[in-house]
Amino acid sequence: MTALPDQPLSPLDGRYRAAVAPLSDYLSEAGLNRARVEVEVEWLITLTDRSLFGTSPLDDDDKASLRALYTDFGAEEIDWLGEKERVTRHDVKAVEYLVRDRLDRLDLGGIAELTHFACTSEDINSTAYALTVQRAVTQVWLPKLRSVIATLETLAVEHRDAAMLSRTHGQPATPSTMGKELAVFAWRLRRVVDQIDGGDFLAKFSGATGTWSAHLAAEPDVDWPGLSRAFIEGLGIGFNELTTQIESHDWQVELYDRVRHVGGILHNLATDVWTYISLGFFAQIPVAGATGSSTMPHKINPIRFENAEANLEIAGGLFGTLAQTLVTSRMQRDLTDSTTQRNIGVAFGHSLLALDNLERGLGEISLSQHVLDADLDANWEVLAEAIQTVVRAEITAGRSQITDPYALLKELTRGRRVGAAELAEFVRGLDIGDDAKQRLIALTPAGYTGLASSLVDVLS
């Protein structure tokens, strides 16, 4: 059998490339290497700005030329690093050699020995990962999540008064409104987004085992922890001062657990909307040219929600593995984190793909109020809760001699359909006050939604 031309193994780089491409600027191997170059360059500039070891601050043109090494990072640098790593067998060392090579090209070879000065690979890596994950989350993933939340909020407001039969345990239950049910998901997601917004993105920059030993050997009179903190915080991320050779990754564990939590809520949303579509509560808007089934022409399948469900499960599994693995490092260092962290982009890619499908899916459904109305009208027995609660109030107020109103309603309604006329006749025969009778007789399943509509305002 003839071998296929070079093809992507992952569907994220093949079938679904367009939906997840923005993440590759940050969470691809090239994105990581660009951030590594950024860290190396900015550390060089920091050291020379302080005139350490007889250097002088670089002028603005030289700094701009140096920073162009990462702002203009592209195919030439990617290829150069690929060739160099095949020799060095060490990705961060290849980056150091790239910076040294470019310093020579820029006639700045006099400061070449300050490249990667007193750094261990994890100083560069932890900083690069903090930068790339922060940027991917804040510039790509969170905006897409917020867009899904905004869509939910819009639908919640639009359908705030759309009475619907609830189903607890899959059985008819006290009515709600579709708007309130969608608002619940928006509210849940908002909470976790706030937690993610308040989270850390941390780096270490303290040498081989987190002690600044080499730094002090080279220059004992410098406040190296203070300088390192200023450097890291100047990049817009947080500084972890107390570490082993590696930054402990706890901030990543926290982030991935929260992102997985978001995925769980979204999975719940996907399965609920899928079920509402199955019940006919939502109609799917046909997409011109689309095919639902290869043999059944009538079908419009809820594929957006099914795709989201599956990708959220994949993402959740990966985020769980990331959190479980990254929390541990043997003694001062092992390399289990190295290959694990290379899958951060894969996890976020499946999550982003799910978000994209949810956003599109929510835009391709239309509420079928007549189906909701028919469902409510077929389930008048859900008013049993209201009746027995009113009877209890009447007993307490001294206007009724009924004993055990719950049992009375249970006998009337449990496991059987009860229509409007039958309920009205039952209420007229109750030993309760006239005002209570009139309220109950006037009640309908569609009108028994309590504060559901106004609860949507909690989102405001």
Automatic annotation (TrEMBL):
The Adenylosuccinate lyase PurB C-terminal domain, residue ranges: 329-449
Domain Fumarate lyase N-terminal: 59-308
GO terms, molecular function: lyase activity
UniProt keyword Lyase present: yes
Record-linked SUPFAM superfamilies: L-aspartase-like
Matching PROSITE patterns: FUMARATE_LYASES
Organism of origin: Microbacterium aquimaris
The protein's name in its UniProt record: Adenylosuccinate lyase
